[in-house]
Amino acid sequence: MKTYSMRAPVLRGRIARRILVGLRVDPSVARRLLPSGLEPRLIEGHAIAGVAFTRIEDLRTRLLPIPFGASSDSVEHRIAAEPTTVAKRRFRALGRAPFYVLRRDASTAADAFLTHPSVAAERGRSRFDIDERDGRLEARARSFDGRMSIRVGADEIEAWPADSVFGSLLAAVRWFGDDVPSAWRGRLVPQRDSAGVDATRVVRARSSLRWIACPLGVETFASTYLEDPVAFPEGSVTVDHALCLRDVEEVWHSAPDLHGGHLRF
Fold first, then answer.
1. Using DSSP, how many helices (H) and how many strands (E) does the chain show?
2. Rounded CA gap, 131 and 137, in Å?
3. Which of 10, 17, 200, 240 could pair covalently with 22 via S-S, beta carbons 3.0-4.6 A apart?
């Protein structure tokens, strides 16, 4: 029987700041966290996960004028994925390779409301503490229920880390799809019934050609979510790089080919 869910609203907003920590993950571990139909997107034999602290400002729907746009802080744990050969036709609407969201935490109830109602990825309300001064960034988040805490301490640096699987800052930004104006990039979250995935497509506004990015040198990084020895055995996750992206205009809306009804694999 076909099921339906309420379509998420079209949202517009500006990413004022995104602190992204890129992680190398054992492909076998990443594969276990993805639903059938998706497999890890690999680079140099590594799966890539990301922890993204994002500050969104002027968040609004088409009907909400700019002066009343909301703002929100969030942090997502996600894995870069791509459809298997069998599932490629089903993911055609997504365009570029998607990210699969494992957990999302946000600072406001409004952010949770704007998240699609069929989302079954772990999510929660969290308290955020972001401190930025003299090239130093400290980001912390702790869920109100105490089940999740994460912290990142990093400094702006000039040289890209030599041991990264990405050859440069630009290569990392391009791989994640952050350099392409008006290009689709998928963001996938599991449905409540675990029958498939809901897709939210992201389109870059043309003004995002002016984005600003800089590499970060990570001094401290800890996430209780990644410390689960069952999901992430010891040694299966390693910090690859970190960067800070600023002033990106985005438009989010659901991908119709995946959103209507449920998608089974």
1. 4, 13
2. 6
3. 240
- Separation CA 106–CA 77 (nearest Å): 12
**pLDDT tens digits, the chain, 265 residues: what are they?**
444 444 555 777 888 899 999 999 999 999 999 887 788 999 999 999 999 999 988 877 766 655 556 788 989 898 988 877 766 665 555 555 568 888 888 887 555 444 443 343 455 678 999 999 999 999 999 988 888 899 999 999 999 999 999 999 988 887 776 544 444 455 666 554 445 555 555 554 444 556 788 999 999 999 999 999 999 999 999 999 999 988 887 777 665 544 443 333 3
Distance of alpha carbon 262 from the chain centroid? 22
Fold of 11-123+156-259: Acetoacetate decarboxylase-like (2.40.400)
Phi, psi of 127 (to 5 degrees): -95, 130
Residues 6+ apart with CB under 8 A from 149: 140, 141, 142, 143, 222, 223, 224
- Domain locations along the chain: 11-123+156-259
Determine how many CB atoms are found less than 10 A away from the CB of residue 28. 11
Q: Please report where in the chains the tokens 């990825």 appear, as a residue.
A: 121
In the three-class reduction of DSSP (H, G, I as helix; E, B as strand; rest coil), residue 154 is classed as: strand
Enumerate the H helices of the chain as residue ranges. Answer: 27-33, 109-114, 169-175, 256-259
Three-class DSSP category at 56: strand
Structural tokens at position 198: 């809901």
Element (H, E) at 259: helix 256-259
3-state helix, strand, coil in the chain (%, to 5): 15, 50, 35
